[in-house]
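Hi V.,

You were right to ask for the full record rather than a summary. Here it is.
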Amino acid sequence: RIMGLAYRSILDGLVARGAESGGRVGTTGAFVLGQQVRALTDAPLWVQGGIGRHTAAAAVTGGATGVVLDAQVALLRESTLSRPIRLALAAMDGSETRVVAGHRVYTRPDLWVADVDDRSTANDFAPRVGGTSLRDQALPAGQDAALAAGFAARYGSVGALVAGLRREIAEHVAAARRVEPLAPGAGVSATTRAATPWSRAR
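Predicted structure:
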């Protein structure tokens, strides 16, 4: 408890990095992790992992200060990734990742990382994680890398993405406040005769 209070007094902010992210990850998804961290501190909190145009607003509504984008920006105009890596990311549907030694990386049947033993240790695997060559390195790409092509088509540049995402977060949050989707009588509760459009797991 004392340690927790000390951390709260010195932190400038925290990033809740969910299991969907690329690179070093744990086992808890971004939104659950964000809620867990928010329950421990009121420090500024950014959520990373699986963040798209709509889930960004959901993270902010759930108490996050903002969101962190990673592989989602890999195909924007400013990207310096090699052509083979860009082509690989552009073709992703989100299923082409695996976790090895605590690292979520891009995989494909023809790449060496597809054959790495699940029992590999972080000390053995981490030195081979990188973003230069798919043949020699394990690319740290999360499931959200599948959003990169859509982001590139919609925004084009980092500046346009930041401006657009800020606007869309504000619009989504405002819409949720107007509609109140979890209020009694809202959503599916209107047709199911339930008191509320949500239920509590026991």
